[in-house]
Amino acid sequence: MWPFKKHKTEKDLLVERIKSEAPDMSGLMESIKNINNIDALYKELCSLSHPDRFANDEDLQTQAYTLFKEVQANRYNYGKLVSLRKEIIETISQKDHQNEM
Question: Is 75 exposed, middle or buried (0-12, 13-18, 19+ CB in 10 A)?
Fold first, then answer.
């Protein structure tokens, strides 16, 4: 054996601490739930704002195309998808309902 004691560096201490601590898995399950919510919201918004739904109304089709592209660009941004949902419901869905009457 060596007569001298090796001094532990900061790196050695950090590695020991990481190995001794159990990983926290609680955040992982929450992330998985959020991914499912994002996917469901994304699919809903794609179907609501798809331009092919408005083939008979050129103005609505143009608005839907713009919103559809924005939904696609923000697929993993949950906050933006929620605000887009509100915008889609307020603009396209109300005008589509008025056209049916």
Answer: middle
Distance CA 12, CA 17 (A): 9
pLDDT tens digits for 30-45? 777 778 889 999 999 9
CB neighbours of 76 closer than 8 A, spacing ≥ 6?
38
Angle between helices 78-88 and 58-73 (to 10 degrees): 170
| The two three-digit tokens of residue 26, written as one number | 């609680």
User: What global pTM score does this model have?
Assistant: 0.63
Question: Could you tell me which of 21, 38, 53 has the C-alpha nearest to residue 85?
Answer: 38
